[in-house]
């Protein structure tokens, strides 16, 4: 599974809009939109901020998906 697909899945499971997730994570809507649509790869700091905002315990899962996407 790709990072952007997993991010969208997690966001929708919590009934969050891109704007609401952006507010919680301190990431702009336009950046989040680009990440979720697979246009850009997030930095490690952004991945961690998103994991915290989404209350993801296993941050390594998201970090690994993001790393794999940037290597591919």
UniProtKB/TrEMBL annotation:
Coiled-coil stretches noted in the UniProt entry, renumbered to this chain: none
Protein name per its UniProtKB record: Transcriptional regulator with XRE-family HTH domain
Record keywords: DNA-binding
Signal peptide: none
Domain HTH cro/C1-type: 7-62
